Amino acid sequence: MSARKLAMVAFRGLQLAFIGLVIAHICFGWGYPVWWDFLPLVLAYVLVTVANRWGGAPDSSRRAPEPVEVAPPVTGRWSALNSPADRTPSHGVHAHGQTYAIDILAEPEPGARPGFHWLWPIARRPQDFPAFEAPILAVADATVVRAVDGQRDHLSRNSLAGLLYLMLIEGSVREMAGLRRILGNHLILDLGNGTYAAYAAYAHLRRGSLTVREGDRVHAGQVIARCGNSGNSSEPHLHFQLMDGPDPDAARGVPFTWHGVGVPRNGETFEVPSTAAALG
After folding, report:
1. For 223-252, how does the pLDDT look when each residue is reduced to its tens digit (9 = 90+)?
2. Contact assessment for residue 227 and residue 236, using Cβ atoms and an 8 Å cutoff
C-alpha cells in the first residue's frame, strides 16, 4: 500500500474512532475530560492537511513530459469551474489525484442553467439542469479499469442552506464513507501508451447510465455514460481529471489539454462540435 493510500485510510479510520469515542463516552460515562475524545479528529485533519498538499506532480519516471492531449469528454456548449488553468491544485488539494482536475457545467445558452440562490429554492431536481443526462464521451482509445454505478442522483446544493449542508455535514460523511461516496457513479479509463501512465477519471455520473464495464475497450468519442449528480456534487456536472494510477487515493494528478479547446479558465464558455470529440 502506497504512503498516499495509507494516509487516506488512516484519515477515515481516525474520523470513525472519534465518533466511536464520543458514543462510548456518553454510554459509559468515562471520567476523563470530553475534549480528549477529539484527539483522533485533530490527528485526522492534521494528517489529511499534510496529504492534501503533498506533492501534486506525478512521479518523474512515469509522467508525460507535457500535458497529455486528449479529446474533449463532451459536446455542445459548456463552462468551466475549478480549472487548473487558473490555479493548481485546481480544487485546493492534491488528494484523490485531482491536482489538475476540472469541473464543467452545460450552458447550452446564457441563463439556461439555474443559478445560485441564497434562500429559495433550497434545492432543485437534477432534471432542472441542462447538464443532467448529457452524453459523456471517452477522451481516447482506452480500457475501462473501474466502473462504479448504483448511487442515486440527489437534489442540488446550490442555495446557502444546501451549500452549508454539503460542506459541513454531507462532505464529511462522504469522506468517512470512502472514495466511492465522494466520486459517486464514476469511470476510470487506462489511456497508457506504454511510455507513460495516464488514467482518465469521470465523476458524478448518472445512476444506471454507464454503457461500459470493467475490462471493456472504448474508442475516442464513444458514449460511455451520462452526466448526473451523484456523490459529493452541488449540481449536475462532470468532474474530469487525469492521474498516473487507477486508484485516486494513491495517484498523483497529470496535466491535460483537450483537442481544439485547450484548458478553459474559470467561467469560460467553450463549445465542442459533435465531430471534434471523435478526433482523439
Report:
1. 999 999 999 888 899 999 999 889 988 888
2. yes
Task: Look at residue 61 and tell me if it is in a domain.
Answer: no
Domain count, the chain: 2
CA pair distance 198, 203, nearest whole angstrom: 16
For the record, the C-alpha cell of 249 comes out as 487515493
- Residues (pLDDT < 70) of the chain are 1-4, 7, 45, 47-65, 193-196, 275-280
Measuring CA to CA, which residue among 88, 83, 66 is closest to residue 263?
83
Q: How far apart, in whole angstroms, are the C-alpha atoms of residue 276 and residue 265?
A: 20
CA dihedral 201, 84, 116, 75 (to 10 degrees): -60
Q: Helices (DSSP H) in the chain: which residue ranges?
A: 3-28, 39-52, 160-165, 171-177, 179-183
146 and 73 inside one domain? yes
Q: If you average pLDDT over every residue of the chain, what do you get?
A: 84
On whether the CB atoms of residues 235 and 229 are closer than 8 A, the answer is: yes
Asked, for residue 168, whether it belongs to a domain, the answer is yes
Q: Is 74 part of any domain? A: yes
Would you say residue 63 lies in a domain? no
What DSSP character marks residue 67? Answer: P
Per-residue pLDDT tens for 59-82?
444 454 589 999 999 999 999 999
Cell of 197: 501512465
Indicate if 82 and 153 belong to the same structural domain: yes
Name the residue range of residue 18's domain.
3-52
